[in-house]
Design a protein that fits this description.
The structure is a single chain. The protein is built from seven helices and ten strands. The chain is α/β, with parallel strands linked by helices and 251 residues long. The chain has one domain: Rossmann fold (3-Layer(aba) Sandwich), CATH 3.40.50.300. It binds adenosine-5'-triphosphate (ATP).
Amino acid sequence: MAYHRKKNRLTNTKPDTPTAVFRAVDVTKVYQMGEVSVPALRGVSLELFEGEFVVLLGASGSGKSTLLNILGGLDVPTSGTVYYLDDDLTASDPAVLTRYRRDSVGFVFQFYNLIPSLTARENVELITEIAESPMRALDALELVGLKERADHFPAQLSGGEQQRVAIARAIAKNPKVLLCDEPTGALDVKTGIVVLEAISRINQELGTTTAVITHNAEIARIADRVISLSDGQIGDVKVNETKLDVSELAW
Ligand SMILES: Nc1ncnc2c1ncn2[C@@H]1O[C@H](COP(=O)(O)OP(=O)(O)OP(=O)(O)O)[C@@H](O)[C@H]1O
């Protein structure tokens, strides 16, 4: 598999069995809206492996955000089991889930959710102050190419730059996994590519297991694997034998 080969090229050693960072088994999610039941996931089983870059592809309403939120401990399934490494997230109490979200998961959303009255560096420091083994805020900003803008406020930054601050904030805690829900959804193509370059660099340089939600099939070409969701079920899982460099993307 592609993520395997990447590791091999770097270490020149025999392939070993990939570690599953996530294992979801027959996960369902039904939202109950009064009398109405809305099935969002209908028996999803998947594994995400250490260090890989996965794109979750699917039309609006196919269940992508619901799945990512469950993997990230923001939501719980109606039935089924989700393992993070050896831990059963679905059997964890709220305090354990809080610690899991705080220490192990970096989230990036479509809208950047920066605090307007804090500089880029201070927005990142909010996280480094509570994380267990963070990197320095300036180092996180450097990884996304914004070290020089550390003392600027969000209003002084473009949308793409604000999203890169949000990425720096997400990875400054040194999370094991980076979960991105439509990170380029609010951006034009050129800016979206710069944001994807930052995410891809983090995946490659830090080895952070990365999942990116999109409905844009072009973006799927930069992934190690593409998992397609349709109507709350996994349709197709494709390994990109030759994955595109982010700079080659156009849509
Ligand atoms: N909190 C909620 N309450 C009720 N229904 C919900 C809730 N969240 C999601 N749904 C429903 O679950 C289904 C899956 O939604 P979800 O947001 O996971 O899809 P998605 O693929 O991420 O869509 P999009 O690309 O539009 O964000 C949809 O029918 C949606 O209306």
